[in-house]
Design a protein that fits this description.
There is one protein chain. By secondary structure, the chain is of the alpha+beta class. It has one domain.
């Protein structure tokens, strides 16, 4: 992974295309943080439903609030994956904000603003069972 600097925005790709142009499509996970972008590009990217990354929670919150005219964003913890990584890790995702509480799947919904370290504050969800 490239060095990530505090206060700088980066493209974020949940599944990054790594194949060369003209070659069969090949994607890879685990390399989500992409090239550095300006704050203006980050704003436009999230507004259009795409994702960005910034290291600091405060910076992520500020962008999320700006995108929805001051409406508070919804913070999501590092999700539990459907399947563990090839090494068995489950703390593989990032915390993130949904600007204005909207999801990308909502009509006109903005993208995610990911922040922090991979797996930061990850807690495995307890299975619901019918027994006490």
């Amino acid at each position: 992974m490239a060095i990530v600097l505090r206060g700088r925005f980066y493209e974020f790709h949940r599944e990054r295309v790594v194949s060369r142009p003209g070659q069969p499509l090949l994607t890879q996970t685990g390399i989500e943080i992409g090239p550095e972008i300006s704050s203006e590009q980050a704003f436009k990217r999230v507004r259009s439903g795409k994702d960005v990354y910034i290291l600091g929670k405060e910076d992520a919150y500020k962008l999320a609030t700006q995108l929805q005219n001051g409406r508070p964003p919804k913070e999501e913890p590092a999700h539990e994956p459907k399947f563990p990584s090839p090494t068995g890790r489950e703390d593989i995702y990032y915390r993130h904000y949904h600007p204005g509480g909207m999801h990308p799947s909502d009509p006109g919904g903005p993208g995610h603003i990911y922040f922090g370290e991979r797996g930061e504050n990850f807690e495995k969800r307890k299975m619901k069972t019918g027994s006490p």
